[in-house]
Amino acid sequence: MERFGLVGLPNAGKSSLYNALTGGGALAAPYPFATKDPNIGVAKVPDDRLDRLAAMSASKNVVHAAVEVVDIGGLVEGASKGEGLGNKFLANIREVDAIVFVLRAFVDEDVTGSADPLEHLRIVELELALADLETVETRLAKTKRAAKLEKALGDEVRHLEAAYAALAEGTPLYRAGLSDEARLALAPHFLLTNRRVLAIVNVGEDDLGSIPDFEAGVAAELTAAGDNVEVIGMCIQLEAEAASIEDPDERAEILEGFGLGEGALFRMVRSAYHLLGLRTFLTTGDKESRAWTFHEGSTAPVCAGRIHTDFQRGFIRAEVIQWDELLELGSWTKGKEAGKIRVEGKDYVVQDGDVMEFRFNV
Ligand SMILES: Nc1nc2c(ncn2[C@@H]2O[C@H](COP(=O)(O)OP(=O)(O)OP(=O)(O)O)[C@@H](O)[C@H]2O)c(=O)[nH]1
Ligand SMILES: [Mg+2]
User: Fold this and answer.
1) From the CA of 184, how far away is ligand 1's center (Å)?
2) What gap in Å lies between CA 79 and CA 85, rounded to an integer?
3) Are 292 and 280 in contact (CB under 8 A)?
4) What are the strands of the beta sheet with 3-7, ordered from one edge?
5) Do 10 and 104 contact (CB within 8 A), yes or no?
6) What distance in angstroms lies between residue 120's CA and the mean position of ligand 1's atoms?
7) Which of 62, 94, 141, 212 is found 20 to 30 A from 87 (Cα to Cα)?
8) Angle (nearest 5°) at CA 305 between 304 and 306
9) Cβ–Cβ under 8 Å, residues 312 and 302
10) Which DSSP category does 13 fall into?
11) How many CA atoms within 13 Å lie on the side-chain side of 153?
12) Cα 261 to ligand 1 centre (Å)
């Protein structure tokens, strides 16, 4: 399962957000370093398309896609040099696929620390960039030596040099304007800032109206990033309170009462999922409707393999229709009768929102 890690200064609200997303019981407390070892949990990816298909098929079982969330201990200025929880926290970040920055903007006298999200962003970015700088420096020296004997390593030296130049300025790689080719070539080095980033601005209960301003302020700092970065403002405290309510109708009422609409958690999980390059195809029937995760650009046999390896091995063809077309037709059978279900072969690149059935032979 794909993982995203919550990264930020102490008391930013990471554990509170983790609890809200996963229904977990991580310690959230008004003192720094409340979290020492990471908490790991699973967040369901809300999907209205799935719910509607399940209703259409009167499915007994509904299975959402899911991602893993890791709540990492707070980092402080100097973390890359061992301050605070230091290197331990860096190791935890290396293990995630995408980073979610939690930047504090809420003011609360009982919770120590700065409430300036840009200050939070500056420190977090600098620490991650410094940690990467150290890694790149070592790799660059090694690769340069090796390149004297092996000419093919010239490209790698070039990419590492470009990374070095950016990091030495304190610029994280996700907004250093590197080409896709360069970022891909650097992937084997597991650098912290060579990933996609989602930034959450944790706004106070009384500041909901200022969410767009906070979002714009943080986004302006991250502009060079292009598609690799997204910013979402929310009040984690209120979101967490609402999320703790089991009954969906009651929860919707509370969210409405707080003035939070559908709530920002849903939006956040969806954004993180998309940022990771993850997409969804669906299956639907009376027994089960289910959302399956695949990587953007996957072919039909690869997607079939998400369900069962036999489906991939013995793949013959896929029957496909977009979810909204199927809903309009009312059922798979009606879709067939109307000739609206397409037959696709092994080269078909699956699209987000495809509803699929696979024919296979083993
Ligand atoms: N007023 C207010 N308090 C919040 C909000 N979000 C979190 N808090 C409080 O801030 C304190 C710190 O929250 P945590 O979730 O423990 O923060 P953390 O980022 O996990 O902190 P560390 O684990 O120490 O790095 C807790 O007492 C929370 O209840 C918020 O939106 N508003
Ligand atoms: Mg914590």
Assistant:
1) 36
2) 7
3) yes
4) 39-45, 65-71, 3-7, 98-104, 197-202, 229-234
5) no
6) 14
7) 141
8) 90
9) yes
10) S
11) 15
12) 22
pTM for the model stands at 0.87
Distance 15 CA to ligand 2 centre (A): 4
Can you say how many angstroms the Cα of residue 84 is from the centroid of all Cα atoms in its chain?
Answer: 26
164 lines ligand 1 (CB under 6 A): no
How far apart CA 251 and CA 123 sit, in angstroms, is 36
**10 CA closest ligand 1 atom index:** 25
What pLDDT, in 10s, does the model give residues 1-30?
Answer: 888 899 999 999 999 999 999 987 788 888
Among 6, 7, 9, 11, which is best to mutate for testing ligand 1, by the most ligand atoms less than 8 A from CB? 11
Report the candidate in 233, 104, 222 with the shortest Cα–Cα distance to residue 174. Answer: 222
Torsion angle in degrees (nearest 10) through CA of 37, 70, 197, 43: -160
pLDDT tens digits for range 38-90: 899 999 888 889 999 999 999 999 999 998 999 988 888 887 777 777 677 77
Residue 132's contacts (CB-CB under 8 Å, 6 or more residues apart) are 163, 167, 172, 173, 191, 192, 193, 194
What single string gives the DSSP state of each residue in 14-52?
A: HHHHHHHHH-------SSTT---SPEEEEEEE--HHHHH
Nearest atom, ligand 1, residue 110 CA: 27
* CA 149 – CA 158 distance, rounded (Å): 16
Ligand number with the minimum distance to the CA of 241: 1
pLDDT at 228: 66
**In whole angstroms, how far apart are CA 346 and each of 46, 302, 306, 322?**
29, 9, 15, 18
CA of 208, nearest ligand number: 1
Ligand 1 and 32: CB distance under 6 A: yes
**Which pair of tokens denotes residue 241?**
């309170």
Tokens at 327, concatenated: 């809903």
The position carrying tokens 């980033």 is 197
